[in-house]
Amino acid sequence: MPIRSILAGTGAYLPAHIVTNDELALTVDTSDSWIRERTGIGQRHFAAPHETAAFMGTEAARAALANAGAGPDDVDGIILATSTPDQAFPATALRVQAALGVTRGFGFDLAAACAGFIYALSVADGMIRAGQAKGILVIGSEVYSRILNWQDRGTCVLFGDGAGAVFVRAGEGSGCIDRGILSTHIHAQGTLGDILYVDGAVGQPDKPGHLVMHGREVFRHAVTRLAEAVEEALAANGLTRRDVDWLVPHQANARIIDAMGRKLGLSSERVVVTVDRHANTSAASVPLALAEACADGRIRRGDLVLLEALGGGLAWGSALVRM
Ligand code: UT7
User: Fold this and answer.
1) Final residue in a domain of this structure, among 176, 197, 215
2) Which of 173, 114, 99 is nearest to 144 (CA)?
């Protein structure tokens, strides 16, 4: 039997501090109705000073390991997707490794903005299939509250903080019925780098960086590219829209999520939505949504789940998983 990557456990972490749209409107020139109508967002979680990408990623990873019935000795590697690392180096993944008490294996960070978790899952799947590892923690952890421009109402109302994780374990399987990751597809178009970016980093003189987005353009590309990604994932597996039990999309905007659900012909109950409560948590959004729907019993063993995301880069992709 071929090696296959099984999603053995999921975990999540959200900061306790919740900020509603009305609370934001006290300091930003905006309103609850504008934010809800344009995005579906009602509130977001913001990190306290100690809640860094490493801290939140560790908590989510701990929960994913517990959910899988695994421990630190089962972890051969950690891949952490983030655009808001604690430090330029060491990798945030290695701070997580130390905090979890994992004393061997590899760890690295992966930067693909909102598509980071899908990219990280794709890399983990390749490594597991190649026999390089038997157990990999894949984490998305973000503190976008620290890179928002509070003078730009077009972006600062859209994002939140949090972390999600999965523990991916080597198993065996083939075809579309056996458990595991059936396929991943990742894409990028660097020529669109200037429609969603952070205007600085530690490598630039005196520029810590703030998020900049041309929302309408990103919206347009998101709808087109994600629709293509959905078709690509199904075609690669000889499946149709009818075979998909759950869509777990990137949580940027309820209007984009609805468009994807319609594209798949899924009723709204079959689309996992957290954007109303979490806002856009970038690389954390897909694993947070997946962990929530697994924990509350919506997504069950044997279900076919389609994950997709798009973000700065532009970078986008999909993963089709039999749970
Ligand atoms: O996670 C990465 C991927 N990201 C995405 O997929 C995001 C994609 N883009 C979007 O979700 C939407 O484009 C936004 C939600 C960001 C913006 O929605 P929009 O319908 O494209 O609005 P807009 O930027 O075109 O702005 C419309 C109006 C403007 O006013 P005028 O020029 O029409 O008078 C803005 O100044 O809304 C105004 N506006 C606001 N008003 C109140 C912009 N932001 C706000 C705000 N509160 N926070």
Assistant:
1) 176
2) 114
- pLDDT tens-digit readout, 68-122: 999 999 999 999 999 999 999 999 999 999 999 999 999 999 999 999 999 999 9
Structurally, how many domains does the chain consist of?
Answer: 2
In the residue annotation, 294 being an active-site residue is answered as no
| 280 labelled catalytic | yes
CA dist 247 → 157, 192, 194, 272, 307 (Å) = 25, 26, 29, 6, 6
Rounded Cα gap, residues 318 and 121, in angstroms: 10
**Residue 67 appears among annotated catalytic residues:** no
Tell me, what DSSP letter sits at residue 144?
G
Tens digits of per-residue pLDDT, 138-147?
A: 999 999 999 9
Q: Which residues line ligand 1 (CB under 6 A)?
A: 30, 34, 38-39, 114, 153-154, 157, 215-216, 218-219, 222, 252-253, 256, 280, 310-311
> Residue 250 sits in which domain range?
180-322
